[in-house]
């Protein structure tokens, strides 16, 4: 489904006033794959490079070196017609559900954007499809007439998810898509994502700093640190037992504040 081959990226030299030398690479020789129907968790602390890699995979930022192949096609060397087809099958849900939408558009218009770009539906048919998508994410067709400010954060993220699945894509990049929500809404969204994955046969790239959330939904986990891939394996107890400092930092972050509630992972 997705192959990232030896991708490196740097933002070039510092400005001429800065004598400290060239900037360190943001990404260094990253390789990973996502198979059909698999959810890969891409973890790391702030500044690890995971969101930059997400942008490169989405075709939003060309890497300095390496290849990104989606369905066998190099997304940075494909023709415009091929790239349009690839973009149909590759969708994204961002962290900030509010900035990801036009505040002046209704929920129905937001969800209908990709349908407008790729399908030729009558107004009646599009209304029916949008209503079905709203129901699939736990809302109602009547919610389609509301504006973004009339929804809670959790509800608006459901609308972003409905937009992402509107074209029945093959892969969805979830870039910190639950990190701005409270624990209750996080649990609900994770459950929804699991249901949609089963219904549509979706693959996910689940970008997060929350190892607990990743272990809830992911089949495999990759951990980044300072632009490098430092761990890759199944989403089981082995990741908890890794002795790499970057992995241990993620594990420590989920432990309860009170020592009596802490769990030893070996």
From TrEMBL:
<dbReference type="InterPro" id="IPR017871">
    <property type="entry name" value="ABC_transporter-like_CS"/>
</dbReference>
<dbReference type="GO" id="GO:0016151">
    <property type="term" value="F:nickel cation binding"/>
</dbReference>
<dbReference type="GO" id="GO:0015413">
    <property type="term" value="F:ABC-type nickel transporter activity"/>
</dbReference>
<protein>
    <submittedName>
        <fullName>Nickel transport system ATP-binding protein</fullName>
    </submittedName>
</protein>
<dbReference type="InterPro" id="IPR027417">
    <property type="entry name" value="P-loop_NTPase"/>
</dbReference>
<dbReference type="GO" id="GO:0005524">
    <property type="term" value="F:ATP binding"/>
</dbReference>
<keyword id="KW-0533">Nickel</keyword>
<dbReference type="InterPro" id="IPR003593">
    <property type="entry name" value="AAA+_ATPase"/>
</dbReference>
<dbReference type="GO" id="GO:0016887">
    <property type="term" value="F:ATP hydrolysis activity"/>
</dbReference>
<feature type="domain" description="ABC transporter">
    <location>
        <begin position="2"/>
        <end position="251"/>
    </location>
</feature>
<keyword id="KW-0547">Nucleotide-binding</keyword>
<dbReference type="Pfam" id="PF00005">
    <property type="entry name" value="ABC_tran"/>
</dbReference>
<keyword id="KW-0067">ATP-binding</keyword>
<dbReference type="InterPro" id="IPR014137">
    <property type="entry name" value="Nickel_NikE"/>
</dbReference>
<keyword id="KW-0921">Nickel transport</keyword>
<keyword id="KW-0406">Ion transport</keyword>
<dbReference type="InterPro" id="IPR050319">
    <property type="entry name" value="ABC_transp_ATP-bind"/>
</dbReference>
<keyword id="KW-0813">Transport</keyword>
<dbReference type="InterPro" id="IPR003439">
    <property type="entry name" value="ABC_transporter-like_ATP-bd"/>
</dbReference>
<dbReference type="GO" id="GO:0005886">
    <property type="term" value="C:plasma membrane"/>
</dbReference>
